[in-house]
Amino acid sequence: MNGGLGIDSLKIDYNKLAQLVMNRCDELGKISQSDTCLDRRYLTKEHQQANGLVGGWMQDAGMQTWQDEAGNLWGRWQAANPEAPRFIMGSHLDTVPNGGKYDGMLGVITPVTLIAAMNQAGIRLPFHLDVVGFGDEEGTRFSSTLLGSRALTGQWPASWADVKDSDGISLSQALKYFGSDFASIPNAAIATDNLLGYLELHIEQGPVLENLDLPVGVVSAIAGAKRFEFNITGMAGHAGTVPMNLRQDALCASSEMILAVEKVAQNHGIVATVGRIQNRPNGVNVISGNTGFSLDIRSEFDDKRDIALDEILLELEAIAARRNVRIERKATHAANAVHCDAKLQSVLRNAIETQNIPVHTLFSGAGHDAMAIADICPVAMLFVRCDKGISHHPAEAIDTPDVAVTLAVLSQTLQSLA
User: Fold this and answer.
1) Per-residue pLDDT tens for 381-410?
2) How would you classify the pairing of strands 271-273 and 290-299?
3) Is CATH 3.40.630.10 correct for 14-223+337-417?
4) 376 C-beta neighbours (distance < 10 Å), count
5) Which pTM value belongs to this model?
6) CA pair distance 73, 49, nearest whole angstrom
7) Is 202 assigned to a binding site?
8) How far is residue 127 from each of residues 21, 81, 83, 271, 394, measured CA to CA in Å?
9) 322 is in an annotated binding site
10) Most buried among 26, 260, 388, 415, by the most CB within 10 A?
11) Residue 333 annotated in ligand binding
12) Does the annotation flag 40 for ligand binding?
């Protein structure tokens, strides 16, 4: 590994380059299917426009470009040897409704902009550097996340062809309108015999780096999550006539359960969230007869999460028995944690140290495309500080000086991999 930035990389003005990245994020952030907010979904005309804009920047950087069968945008900075191995960087170009302009997009625009500068500075790498802009990570349109990156790993079940969006358009139909074909999706899977690894740059989407006053951090793992829906059935009754000791109040039981979730999560050092609650009959003068609530529980360590989950389930059953209500649960999601490659983490840490910045390692509580790509090659992630940890919101913001640091770290990382 190199001990510091090469002479050629000193020709790069990272501050100037960072401003270009910010300007490009602004420009890409204007492509939206809504006039009032940023909303760009998979296989729409706005998706096509985004691919066209970013593809133009790739070509300006001296990259070869193409679009795969799943609608993912690719750009390649070709190595001198056509048979050289490949290293992939990338993130997603879709957004949530009313989203921000850095989530995903920063991880595509930044490496493309850096490649142009490295090319101009005469820097060359002994591997093909591919940058991919995934068409779908958020799952907003078809309610199934990571569609873009899963296509690369060959994990598109045939049943997805009939999945429909809110307008009744199936995934198969949407692909046809986009100029592709569901039957050709297997062709988007990539060969792994010459694949060195995958690096994803992403805003943190949390407040840790900001609280530590650090511009970047190395991701150790992406948390594994499980989700459930709970239904609590009691007995509705008149608010004025049923004595307190004779009530089967589903809402009160649920309230105690939700507090138990919080307490167990704190005791085990994991995160657990009840984000949705429904109450029936929901009348001001009626005792609750039925309450439903969700549970999202996550940790970077699956065993730690599952131990806490077992305790939560026991606590909820005990509360239900004590309050004489019935509890039912349904599992709705399960994903194992993904741990980032130790060697790639080490290269990132060394690159950060060359910038005289303290190295902090943290795990990601949010899911990312790297989770899917981990099935086929080593993966790593670099987080960038974001204002107040806000994401999936128009207030999502990053600082230009942090982007300059990020560019320098990525430049050092790529040259060290060489």
Assistant:
1) 999 999 999 999 999 999 999 999 999 999
2) antiparallel
3) yes
4) 19
5) 0.88
6) 11
7) yes
8) 24, 8, 9, 40, 37
9) no
10) 415
11) no
12) no
